[in-house]
């Protein structure tokens, strides 16, 4: 591809309006299979993180950011959100 600056033709890049799915990882569980087979409604599955620990944001399998879970207020009260605390640079490293 040509590395020269692109001339602005006044047209918006069509890729800017394509939605992308971001997965938020709050933790992992590692139960034994025998314990997994005993799970029922109302079972509690402990995770490897605490409530105040940062969550990780992924696009596919690529880590793109870290943040803190928050609860929305106002019209969206009760809805979960993430406040970003770290964002990857262009090389993909935190």
From TrEMBL:
Coiled coil: none annotated. Residues 18-88 form the Flagellar motor switch protein FliN-like C-terminal domain. It comes from the Bacteria. GO terms for cellular component: bacterial-type flagellum basal body; plasma membrane. InterPro entries: FliN-like_C (IPR001543), FliN/MopA/SpaO (IPR051469), FliN_T3SS_HrcQb (IPR001172), SpoA-like_sf (IPR036429). GO terms for molecular function: cytoskeletal motor activity. Keywords: Cell membrane, Cell projection, Chemotaxis, Cilium, Flagellar rotation, Flagellum, Membrane. The keyword Membrane applies. It is found in: Cell membrane. Pfam families: FliMN_C. Its main location: membrane. It is a peripheral membrane protein. One of its GO terms (biological process) is chemotaxis. Belongs to the FliN/MopA/SpaO family. This is Flagellar motor switch protein FliN. It comes from Pseudooceanicola antarcticus.
């Amino acid at each position: 591809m040509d590395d020269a600056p692109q001339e602005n033709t006044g047209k918006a890049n069509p890729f800017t309006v394509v939605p992308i799915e971001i997965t938020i990882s709050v933790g992992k569980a590692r139960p034994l299979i025998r314990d997994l087979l005993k799970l029922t409604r109302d079972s509690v599955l402990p995770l490897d993180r605490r409530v105040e620990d940062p969550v990780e944001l992924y696009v596919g399998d690529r880590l793109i950011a870290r943040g803190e879970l928050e609860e929305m207020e106002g019209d969206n009260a009760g809805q979960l959100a993430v406040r970003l605390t770290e964002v990857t640079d262009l090389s993909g490293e935190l």
